[in-house]
Design goal:
The protein is an alpha+beta fold and 221 residues long. Helix content is 41%, strand content 13%. The protein is globular and about 50 Å long.
C-alpha cells in the first residue's frame, strides 16, 4: 500500500471488533510515527496508549462523567467565537450525514445524546491514545500535533487497522490522567480510538465528503 492508497481508503471508524491489536503492531505504528516532521524539530508530542483492563476502566469513567451531565474542562479551551458561515455549513452537513445514517432526527435529543456518548465508549475500540503537548506551547506546535496525528492514522491503515480522531477525548483530561500515563505539565489536545474494523457495523457506512480542489486551493503562475 502506498500513501495515496492509504489516504483514499482511510475514514473515521466508529465500530470495532473486540479483538485487541498485538502489542508489537501498536509499538511499530508509534515508533514509525516518531519520524513525523515538526517545527525546528521540537517534537513537542507525547502519546499515552491505553489498552486492556485500563481501556475498559477508562471507558467506564468517561461514560460516567458524560452521563452525569458534567461538561468537563479542557486543557486547551475551544474557540468561543462563531465559526465563519462556510465552516458552519460543513459542520452541519457532517452532523446531518452522521445522524441520518443512524436514523436519528435532529429533534431526537435522546438519540443524539446516545450517539454523542459513543465518543466516550471509544466506539467499542479496544485501544485509545491521548495526544498531549506542554501547556506552554501554542498554535505552531498544534500544527505539529496534527502532522503526527495524520502520520499515525495512515500507518494504521497500512496495517489493516481503523481509527478515529476525537476532540471529545480532551473533554475530561483529569479523568484521562487517572488512567493514562500523561506527563504532568502536558495538556491533552485530542485522542484516537483504534483497533480492527467491524465491517458489519452499520455506523461504519458513514462517509464524509470533501470540498473540490478549486474550493480550497488557488494557483498563481
Amino acid at each position: 500500500m502506498n500513501v495515496t492508497e492509504a489516504l483514499t481508503s482511510r475514514y473515521s471508524v466508529r465500530g470495532y471488533l473486540p479483538e485487541p491489536v498485538p502489542d508489537n503492531v501498536i509499538q511499530e505504528v508509534f515508533d514509525l510515527a516518531r519520524l513525523a516532521q515538526s517545527g525546528t524539530n521540537s517534537q513537542p508530542w507525547h502519546i499515552a496508549v491505553v489498552s486492556g483492563d485500563a481501556c475498559d476502566e477508562l471507558r467506564r469513567r468517561l461514560c460516567n462523567r458524560f452521563d452525569s451531565g458534567d461538561r468537563g474542562k479542557r486543557d486547551f479551551p475551544l474557540p468561543t467565537e462563531r465559526l465563519p458561515d462556510e465552516l458552519m455549513d460543513r459542520r452541519r452537513a457532517c452532523g446531518y450525514s452522521y445522524y441520518s445514517t443512524m436514523g436519528i432526527e435532529r429533534s431526537d435529543r435522546k438519540g443524539r445524546a446516545t450517539i454523542a456518548r459513543k465518543n466516550f465508549e471509544l466506539f467499542g475500540a479496544p485501544h485509545a491514545a491521548f495526544f498531549s503537548m506542554p501547556r506552554v506551547l501554542g498554535l505552531s506546535s498544534a500544527v505539529d500535533m496534527g502532522i503526527l496525528l495524520q502520520t499515525v492514522t495512515l500507518l494504521m491503515v497500512e496495517r489493516g487497522l481503523g481509527s478515529i480522531a476525537q476532540g471529545a477525548l480532551a473533554q475530561y483530561p483529569d479523568t484521562a490522567r487517572e488512567v493514562a500515563d500523561i506527563p504532568e505539565d502536558n495538556g491533552i489536545m485530542f485522542g484516537v480510538s483504534f483497533g480492527y474494523v467491524d465491517d458489519d457495523a452499520h455506523i461504519n457506512t458513514v462517509r464524509m465528503p470533501r470540498e473540490p480542489l478549486e474550493a480550497i486551493t488557488s494557483f498563481v503562475a
